Amino acid sequence: MTARLRPAGARRTGPRDSDSQIGAGGVDLQDRPARTSVAGMLVAALQAARPRQWPKNLLVFAAPLAAATLGRDYGFGYALVAAAAFTAASAAVYLINDVVDVERDRQHPVKRNRAIASGRLPVPLAMALATAGIAAAISAGLAIGEPWLVGVICIYVVLSVLYTLWLKHVPFVELAFVAVGFVLRALGGAVATHVPPSAWFLAVCSLGALMVAVGKRYTELAVLGADAVAHRPVMRSYSLPRLRLSQRCIALLMLAAYLLWAASEPDGWMRTWHLISAVPLAAALYRFDRLTWQAEGRPVEDLIARDGTMICCELTWLTLFVVGL
């Protein structure tokens, strides 16, 4: 591991051991004050909840969009409640994950700066916030009288905790469980709005989510190299060529499932426009493939939501898809 340079004029406090942590600007995190202000802990709690991941919860609108109906009176409002519930549940899961992985995160070049690993958010407070998030998510489903939404949220939380404690160490199975988290969001939106999801819809969502999960592992392994195993032991079972081939095969299967779904539309107008919308979808999949291959160290979510070319492809697909509705 390459040693980081201390800024000019900085005071050396003695030799570093293997547990020393370096923050932004080369500042030792262990040299930071143990006490944090209330405002600082609030900011740390927000960071630990990972707001950059919250757009994933917009998947609750996928089923109503694909079915071209909100499914029930005030369906949009129910979908918003589902999105809020999954935001609270996912934030709780991130907090639990960071508490479990705190020691491993402290050895990671980037994750050592996370709120819990750096000590800015105390573990007891993080667990209290996680409990509150799960309670809020379940309460949201109960408040709108949707036991199925409560059930989907509970399944999501239980599987996520199992993943954090055990399943993330099981090769290939852990990829499937990462993908399941995406699909459960879509199912949550479907049950909240009373829109039955079709088999093709679930197939496309599942394959797309699995492709993203494989892409995440590919970029991690490409960026960290041999160090990837120390931060995520399951990486010893993966190789870059195998992950690359898997990602491309899944992308092709996803595109094929989308085309079969579009071709099965009974209405000629919808069938035509949805088949046309497969062109920008294919372009987006190709762009995703290129971005993960470059492996610049950016989170996969940034590749999807912050790359200009990718956003253009996604908006073009969405426009054509909506026209077809």
Description:
The protein is mostly helical. The chain folds into two domains: 37-61 and 71-194, Tetracycline Repressor, domain 2 (Orthogonal Bundle), CATH 1.10.357; 198-295 and 303-325. Helix content is 65%, strand content 0%.
Biggest sheet descriptor: none
Count of helical stretches: 14
- The tally of strands reads 0
How is the CATH topology of the largest domain named?
Answer: Tetracycline Repressor, domain 2
Low-confidence stretches: 1-34
- The sequence of SSEs as H and E is HHHHHHHHHHHHHH
CATH architecture of the largest domain: Orthogonal Bundle
Which structural class fits the helix and strand makeup? mainly alpha
- What's the Cα radius of gyration? 21 Å
Name of the CATH superfamily of the largest domain: UbiA prenyltransferase
List the defining traits of the structure above.
single chain; 325 residues; mainly alpha; Tetracycline Repressor, domain 2; 2 domains
